[in-house]
Amino acid sequence: MLLSANRPGQALCRRTLGKQVHFCSSKHITRGAVATMEPQTLQLPSLTGMMQRVKECNEGMEAISMLKPFVVAGKKVGQFKPEFVEQLSHYPSVFHVSECQVSLAPELDTPEKRTAQVARVLEELRDKKVILGWRNELYPVTSSFYDKPDLLVERAAATHFGIKAYGVHCNGYVIDETGRYKLWIAKRSMSKPNWPGKLDHIAAGGQPHNLSPTANIIKECEEEASIPLELARTAKPVGAVSYTTISPTGLKPDVLFTFDIQLPLGFTPKPQDGEVEYFELWPIERVAQTVANTTDFKTNCNLVIIDFMLRHGLIGPDQEGYLNLVRGMRNGDCS
């Protein structure tokens, strides 16, 4: 079958299959270029640098035996470092500290009671400068994302409690006229309390209570990159990555819901909420070299970018170390 017409403004290209001649629009070249040209692969001499970034997301685990479990309603929902347990021991009407665990007072038998009394303690610890970076944002304390929360705690205290925290990250990318991948990169504001000046995704954020991951990433796309609502809604959920590390403040068993959004070639994101200084569109080769050879990106962004490269076939199984890299995307409980 020979197609001789196309929509106004769309150029035609021709490819031959057997004796048939087929035409496709240039629109399909930019969004699905792998159908008409050689797949793009990254020529990396080694995956060692990529693996190093994965390891940096999973540091400090040799100290795991020093942590004390946080048990609520008979379930382990977090873990505390010894120095934070010492702080909590000054509030025996709320926290019961034993040799083997930390629990809450028995009379705190509902999520609402627990949330209110724990909040009082955390506000005092904030005033004492024990907890820094207060966000006025509540995180659920639960053993699984889909369970009902046993209580809610201030986001700034999540690592102190060693609770499982969730976030959303979006890879904003384009495929140019030649079929090459490019990724939109954000430069974080120097005024950010965490990771100032580091490179970041086009949109990302913590996962608050009472908001779905999809609604959250749409909100972040609008707020951080001025992506119109209709376009932001095209962000596709593509999986999750996880990592576990012990930082100076506590345990971080984090899970990041990952999204991809393919943006039009003519679209330019613009900073809106003050968290980003500027956006730049980088060839994927530059992104890969930066991830492999520097620590310029915010640490967990490296994991999401590597996952993007694996999923899009930019890094393949012919490369030595591929399986270790794939395994590194799930260093932690993804529940």
Strand content: 25-35%
Could you tell me the radius of gyration in angstroms?
23 Å
The level-1 CATH class of the largest domain: Alpha Beta
The CATH architecture of the largest domain can be given as Alpha-Beta Complex
Query: Based on CA inertia axes, which overall geometry fits?
Result: globular
Number of domains: 3
The CATH topology of the largest domain, please?
Nucleoside Triphosphate Pyrophosphohydrolase
Low-confidence stretches: 1-36
Helix/strand order, N-terminal first: EEHHEEHEEHEEHEEEEHHEEEHHH
Structural class: alpha+beta
**Beta strand count:** 15
Instruction: Count up the helices.
Output: 10
Mean pLDDT over the residues: 88
Main beta sheet: 7 strands, mixed
Defining key terms:
seven-stranded mixed sheet, 335 residues, alpha+beta, single chain, Transcription Regulator spoIIAA, 3 domains, 27% helix, four-stranded mixed sheet, Nucleoside Triphosphate Pyrophosphohydrolase, 10 helices
General description of the model:
- The structure is a single chain.
- With 335 residues, the chain is an alpha+beta fold.
- It folds into three domains: 1-37, no CATH class; 48-59 and 165-327, Nucleoside Triphosphate Pyrophosphohydrolase, CATH 3.90.79.10; 68-161, Transcription Regulator spoIIAA (2-Layer Sandwich), CATH 3.30.750.160.
- Helix content is 27%, strand content 28%.
- It has helices spanning 26-31, 48-56, 82-88, 111-127, 158-161, 213-225, 229-232, 284-293, 299-311, 322-327; strands at residues 12-17, 20-25, 68-72, 75-80, 95-97, 102-104, 138-141, 151-154, 165-175, 181-188, 199-200, 203-206, 236-246, 251-262, 276-283.
- Strands 9, 10, 11, 12, 13, 14 and 15 form a seven-stranded mixed beta sheet that branches.
- It is globular.
- The N and C termini lie far apart (50 Å).
